[in-house]
Design brief:
Helix content is 39%, strand content 25%. With 277 residues, the chain is α/β, with parallel strands linked by helices. An eight-stranded mixed beta sheet has the order 1-3-6-7-2-8-10-9, with helices on both faces. Strands 4-5 form a two-stranded antiparallel sheet. Helix 7 packs antiparallel against helix 8. The relative contact order is 0.17.
Length: 277
């Protein structure tokens, strides 16, 4: 049994495959929110088997009752949508991160990409970072080949070993077919526990520059501005939060400060808070 059912897409113009999953390496829902904006209004061209990909005990379906009568069950899902922007076809694969069959998923998505003539694969996501919400969101770039990372891009230096995610497993499999891959990962303020619209906006902006096509940002721009105002108001009413943000601002403004130093600073701050309680 194949993992997906593909509909007729017709001819595609230099299609790009964009992948973002809810779950690991999606801090602030940055990747999936950006993917939803890009795919908004697009047609679904492939659906994936939930039974083959999800553990329903970990990703339980949502059951709807009306007056005690069961109306519907919404299963966790993954789908591929086609959206056209700037004369190019963007194929957006997004949904809940699967629990099972990552290697098989990577293989079948790779075969699907070859079948559809995909010319590039792009991963989107977010990572929690010791950064203030009052500063522009920065993005980290990864790729299947060092030549695809611009010298001016912010990228991991040296060897970096991190827990894997389904989005990176798929990218690795696609890269093995010869299709070039790149990943954009927004740095999300670690103290935020909800969707971070500014991070999603940063990913869409970065993607638009990379592809050289206009992408819709009006809604995200409004949402990001409104959320920043709300966060500022919360900080103004809580001196300990405002102090934390000011410390992060000072460290963030020092360009020579590394991510490790920022993380160490926030850990010291939280430890101090625990000791004063």
């Amino acid at each position: 049994m194949v993992l997906y059912e593909l509909r007729d897409t017709g001819p595609l113009a230099a299609p790009v495959l964009i992948v973002a999953f809810d779950g690991w390496v999606n801090a602030g829902d940055a990747g999936t929110r950006a993917a939803e904006v890009i795919a908004s209004g697009g047609e679904t061209v492939a659906t994936f088997s939930s039974d083959a990909l999800f553990d329903y005990r970990a990703n339980r379906p949502q059951v709807t009752f009306m007056e005690g009568v069961m109306e519907d069950i919404a299963w966790p899902e993954m789908s591929l949508r086609r959206a056209e922007h700037g004369g190019r076809d963007l194929l957006v694969l997004t949904g809940t991160e699967p629990n099972w069959n990552w290697q098989r998923l990577g293989q079948e998505v790779s075969e699907l990409a070859l079948r559809l003539g995909v010319v590039e694969h792009i991963s989107l996501g977010g990572i929690p970072w010791a950064a203030p919400h009052t500063r522009p969101v920065s993005t980290i770039v990864t790729a299947s080949d060092r030549s695809r990372v611009d010298p001016d891009d912010d990228h991991p230096e040296g060897r970096l070993v991190v827990p894997g995610a389904a989005v990176t497993a798929v990218a690795h499999a696609v890269a093995a077919t010869g299709i070039p891959t790149v990943g954009f990962w927004a740095r999300v303020p670690h103290y935020l526990g909800s969707v971070h619209h500014a991070a999603a906006l940063a990913l869409v902006d970065r993607l638009a520059i990379h592809l050289g096509v206009p992408l819709p940002v009006a809604t995200l721009t409004e949402e990001a501005a409104e959320q920043t105002q709300q966060l500022d108001a919360i900080a103004d009413g809580r001196p300990e939060v405002k102090n934390l943000i000011e410390q992060l601002e000072g460290l963030s403004d020092q360009q020579e400060t590394s991510g490790e130093e920022l993380a160490a600073e926030i850990e010291r701050y939280l430890r101090d808070q625990d000791e004063t309680r």
